Amino acid sequence: MGLKMLIPAAPQVAGLVDELARWQHDGLPLQLHPGDVGWYAMRGLNSTARSLRVWADREAIYALGLLDGPDLIRMAVHPDFLDIQPLAEQIYADLASPANRIFPSASASIEARGATALGKALQGNGWKPGEAWTPLRRSLDEPVRLPELSFRRVDPAQAGQWMETHLNAFRGQDFSAADLERAVQRWHTMANTPIYEQGQCLTAYDSEMNPLAIAAVWSAGSGRPGLLEPIAVHRASRGKGYGTAISLAAAAELRSMGASSALVCTPSENTTAISTYLAAGFTADSEAHDWHRENTEES
């Protein structure tokens, strides 16, 4: 095939995300989505480019991977090539090659939902099912009915409030003013990338305009599924249905962007999140597992 694994330059990232968007279709398993790359772009386009891996020849791009940390790569394979075993074997060889330094740590995981041939290659080389994830989706054929809350799109002036709610949801009160300042800078970095042209952040407020929950949504283009990433509820507001409310608002925003459906994925052990999405009209797809190995020298 003349296939090579490439590391793109920063100016190539937007074009690769556009290509990834064209791979998103209803009815296919949720693979790496443009929104995943958009959220990662809080680190900047140079860092994002260094974390991308592209399998291509002179004719086409066949697969993309995002190194999301030292021990995880999140994969997408072109829908026409999900079952092509020679391609899968080449991807596996590149991932496993010590020269490529994909996984410097002793254990590693690969997210490759729907990539049937790659799964067979991994299993044949000793990788085992790892963390379980539950993908969920909501059709956007019909308008989304919203609860009686105030939902606002976030502009740069509200980035601090949005990120403060995000940090509170995931870290509680365990963050400093300096942590928040860095987080806000990362938000601006993300929002200034071309990827965010297909993204939007939202905040849900109570009647006194106190932030209750936040979301970011990412379009893959008209007629394609969009992604919710992330969704978060302020810790003081949990257990009151605001997670469901912001999920509905996120779905409605994606519909206004032309998305055919709304997608989200959460660890299967997070039953609270799954219940929240189900209450917002999402339906659960079949559970999917990452592929995992404990010792790189044995794989």
From TrEMBL:
Keywords: Transferase. PROSITE patterns: GNAT. Coiled coil: none annotated. Pfam families: Acetyltransf_1. Residues 149-299 form the N-acetyltransferase domain. The keyword Transferase applies. InterPro entries: Acyl_CoA_acyltransferase, GNAT_dom. It comes from the Bacteria. One of its GO terms (molecular function) is acyltransferase activity, transferring groups other than amino-acyl groups. This is GNAT family N-acetyltransferase. It comes from Glutamicibacter arilaitensis.
